[in-house]
Specification:
homodimer, alpha/beta, three-stranded mixed beta sheet, 36% helix
């Protein structure tokens, strides 16, 4: 299958590009390095530097992998994107090309505006590139479980039948996200759903939970092929942050009461899920929504796991609750369905002690590179910065203390 | 009260600015003439030319009305908007500043992109201008009943309690709009709801049905103060189009089977509703949603009314079904609640024969100005134009035949 991976330099993008190529698909990986730029500007560099995309593709081939085509450019530039679609004629596109950090989207006006503009325009352009230049191309879009928020009823897979005053209809499951970043994914879903029912696009929207892990079959061949491992408060997800804290001897920082429950998955399962979605495509005119995670865990449960396994490795791990920089419920009902991908054949990798130990051992090899100042929250939801004053240059994207 | 009216040159904006000023409020009307530009580019000029905003304000004062301040500029330019808010310190803002045409938003890539960018950025900037420069300012946002689409259950006022598997919660009523324009209003609602619950803004979102009419107390003093009366397929709403067709001797064009049912209101009731919302503001942290219409009518019912009244005036009105250029249900369940504004004191002006006769008589005075080529649909939902080819200049915004 001919597949374009947009955001192909990202935490998930590059591992996905390698996996699809290893699986025999023709892959074009596309990125504009927006995440690299934001990471530099916010002092949120990953634990170890990763080569840029053309070099990654070269190293992958050198390690015995197949060729991954690469294009550097911005999906918000429609002429660029349309040209890729016309030239490559993809049968599927994996759309990861979004600003992915919730804290970044809550820093202030400029960061919020960049997140809204970038994410919506990228999705809009993907829709039109498919419509104009690759009709029939299956769009596999990365959404987030965060779109749903934490409702007091069960979370279904994207849709819900509502019985109301003696009548019934089926609707998009109502969404209420906890950050502007997550809200842009809600807007993406609305936009995709409009164009699916109007122009008959075939779309799979993957509502993914927080991902952890840094090992994949392809990256294990050469450490320079590893995913970008962010452990900071801007780009790092909670499990990856806890792993680095355990190794660095910093107490695991639980935000508030720690009852925040979400559905988690190993990056190995992300790769499985995306492959399953691609190889079992949505129909024309279908917006298929799949909840992409393998187990529900609270922040406290994750902290306890990492602490227990870390202590067994002699790390002496402490856990400390700190003031929650976000605005979210810290104790809440959470029961989210996630049957669709299991039905397609997903074989989950749960977060076992062995898995945690393996990740801790990998992080230990890079212990000397850990920058402690990157770990504690630097962005408060309640303290977003105003826009730059008119007539003055825009504020630098450096974070507030 | 100090009120900024964004989109103050529009069909509703200018009458609102005058009404608020007449009611004793301090009004700043803001516009960038986007609608005028699009109307020129698509050959959709109104039935009679209306003066630009500064001239309208001058004529209004000349007719004995109070002063309306005017500012010409783009709400998508945050420096411009922030400066207005800082200087004027509004207690309320009425946000009409959006590209309002559904057919325009379905013409092709450029028109869709302009609609998405303009409408979302305007709303985003209003949120931040309030947050940064006028905290406590009540945002009165014009949404549309079109956000809900035509569900098979009753349409509630913005919110719905869902009972599901033995548990309950209250959600934004699920939305599924019929054009990209209407979808941008869905995105607006999502964005407002996120920032209301995160930053405690006070927002009233008015889900308005199609408006008709061209007479208001203030405009009746001087015909040069009339609203922009569009009767074309791009900016004209169905009732205004039928009035002009009846006068011009063109059969009233019913799209498809004509069972499309919506909630309608006279522009006099729009003015009442906006005033009621302003003078009974939402609380901080509240997204108050009110369905703004006074009666449900199908397209066939409206055609019959206009035909009957037109014939009584000797106009010899015919009705003709034509192929529906849109993608919508032509026979459907529709029962939408609209109690909130009645509870605040709205006194509806239903679409009586007298009201229709009064409108027909006004249009008759301008009969010689009717351009017949503007009335039949020029935009098909199924025939959206591709984006301009890379390296070539963008396509002109002229409509497809």
């Amino acid at each position: 299958m001919r597949v374009i991976v947009l955001g192909g330099d990202g935490y998930l993008g590059w591992p996905t590009a390698m996996r699809l190529a290893a699986r025999g698909h023709d892959v074009l990986a596309v990125d504009n390095y927006l995440r690299r730029r934001i990471a530099r500007e916010t002092d949120s560099e990953p634990l170890f530097a990763t080569p840029e995309l053309p070099e990654r593709a070269r190293l992958f081939e050198e390690s015995g992998g197949p060729k991954v085509e690469v294009a550097i450019g911005d999906c918000c530039d429609f002429a660029f994107l349309a040209d890729l679609f016309r030239r490559f004629q993809p049968e599927a596109v994996v759309h990861y090309a979004e600003q992915p950090s919730a804290p970044y989207s809550m820093m202030g006006y400029e960061e919020a505006r960049l997140t809204l503009d970038n994410n919506l325009t990228a999705t809009f352009n993907v829709i039109w590139a498919v419509k104009d230049h690759a009709p029939g191309c299956h769009v596999v879009k990365l959404g987030t479980m965060g779109e749903y928020g934490t409702p007091n009823i069960d979370i279904e897979e994207g849709w819900i039948e509502i019985a109301h005053k003696g009548r019934k209809d089926t609707f998009l499951y109502p969404r209420a996200a906890g950050s502007l970043y997550h809200t842009t994914k809600v807007l993406d879903t609305d936009l995709l759903w409009f164009y699916v029912r109007t122009y008959g696009l075939a779309v799979t929207d993957l509502m993914q939970g927080p991902v952890y892990g840094l090992s994949t079959a392809e990256a294990d061949a050469d450490e320079r092929l590893l995913p970008n491992f962010h452990y900071d408060d801007i780009f790092g997800t909670v499990v990856n942050r806890f792993l680095v804290q355990a190794v660095a001897g910093i107490p695991l920082t639980v935000y508030g009461r720690g009852g925040q429950t979400r559905g988690y998955l190993n990056i190995l399962d992300t790769l499985q899920c995306v492959l399953l979605a691609l190889e079992n495509p949505a129909a024309a005119g279908e917006l298929r929504i799949l909840n992409q995670f393998v187990e529900q865990l609270s922040v406290n449960e994750i902290a306890e796991k990492v602490q227990r396994v870390g202590n067994a490795l002699g790390l002496g791990v402490a856990v400390r609750s700190i003031e929650n920089p976000r605005k979210e419920k810290e104790d809440h009902y959470y029961n989210a369905k996630h049957q669709g991908l299991l039905d397609l054949g997903l074989e989950p990798h749960p977060m076992t002690d062995d898995v945690i130990a393996g990740m801790l051992e990998r992080v230990l090899r890079h212990k000397g590179r850990i920058e402690r100042g990157r770990i504690l929250p630097r962005v408060k939801w309640s303290a977003a910065r105003s826009a730059a004053e008119p007539g003055r240059p825009p504020a630098p994207a450096g974070v507030d203390a």
